[in-house]
Amino acid sequence: xxxxxxxxxxxxxxLSAECYDNIREVQGLDKLKYLESLSIAGCASVKRLDLPNSxxxxxxxxxxxxxxxxIKGLDRLxxxxxxxxxxxxxxxxxxxxNSxxxxxxxxxxxxxxxxxQGLNKLEFLEELYISHxxxxxxxYLPESKGLKVLNVxxxxxxxxxQGIDKLEFLKMLxxxxxTxxxxxNLPKSxxLKILNARNxxxxxxxQGFDRIEFLEELDISQxxxxxxxxLSKSxxxxxxxxxxxxxxxxxQGLxMLESLEDLNIFRxxxxxxxxLPKSxxxxxxxxxYxxxxxxxQGLRRLEFLEELYISQCTSIEMxxLPKSKGLKRLDAENxxxxxxxQGLxRxEFLKMLxxxxxTxxxxxxLPKSKGxxxxxxKSCEKxxxxQGLxRLEFLELLYISRVLQLKGWTFxxxxx
Length: 416
Prior knowledge:
By secondary structure, the protein is mainly β. It has a domain at 317-416. Helix content is 0%, strand content 26%. It has strands at 3-5, 14-16, 25-27, 37-39, 48-50, 59-61, 70-72, 82-84, 93-95, 104-106, 115-117, 127-129, 138-140, 149-151, 160-162, 172-174, 183-185, 194-196, 205-207, 217-219, 228-230, 239-241, 250-252, 262-264, 273-275, 284-286, 295-297, 307-309, 318-320, 329-331, 340-342, 352-354, 363-365, 374-376, 385-387, 397-399. The strands form 10 sheets. It has an 18-stranded parallel sheet, with no helix packed on it. Strands 1-3 form a two-stranded parallel sheet. It has a two-stranded parallel sheet with strand order 5-7. It starts with a strand and ends in a 17-residue tail after the last strand. The relative contact order is 0.05. Residues 410-416 have low confidence and may be disordered.
């Protein structure tokens, strides 16, 4: 069946003809003035749609129509609520109507989509998804009082998003992989909870952090051009990821994030100091490969910390561990200037300790931990003494190869 003829179905309200690869044309579609819902998802051979001038048309689903080039009449549908055209790889332009009812536009993976006309007129739009639209260069957002979700992930040629700063009710903003964006101006939104700007390698500045007091998750990983963050007004952040921000020098206001649960600054090679908050929820801290990190202030305040990763932090000389009895894992391998780990003997629930390659450490004072299973202390050239090794009743793996200075010691199994 190459042609689907619906011209005689004058009173048709719903048309669903999904996943028919052999349909090339839908004849008579423009005559269905009572049509409310159209779904031709997966009709890969359809090249053109001539829509009816229907006041009742609410939904269009045309996902995975990879050869669909044109949708005629879309600009007449003033009461359309939902438009899904994701994976329509041949569409180059969309012309939308000034619709009072439009709530959702999904146009993801439309790799040749260059322009969305009329987007700025959709005053009641709630969701906009145009991720992986590699040809779009600019977006002109509506002054929508209802836009809650904006996802433009991996639009690599997108240079500018006009109107973000006016979206007062935005809850989630994702510009992941928009490698051409240089500046972002955030809105004054009490509802913005999630901001994902990961892998925006040319993003230099994010303005407006002082306007989003209730932000909970921030990801700026691989934003290699950002040098400073000011989070002093965003006290509600629970998750902060800034991995591989090689030029990030300072995070202002970090010590004020009392709700922080997860901090990751892996490979932030320019950071020299961290001033941590007193957070009852802080469970994980990743700061591996921060080669210029000299000092971690406030570590002692993290009473509920469970995992601490600072391997390859070659400038740290001393660790003053938290008063947390719940620390389960400490990774501090190849911290070649680390001389002392204070408070290690307090951690009754420690399961794993890794300090291999810490060539400056001379002594270890281990805790009495019933959960301790693994101890890596290879190539610790100056390690002379390990106190408390005989207290580790349940130790399963012990690696102390190439510890040439270690003096006589015994490992006694107390259960024997």
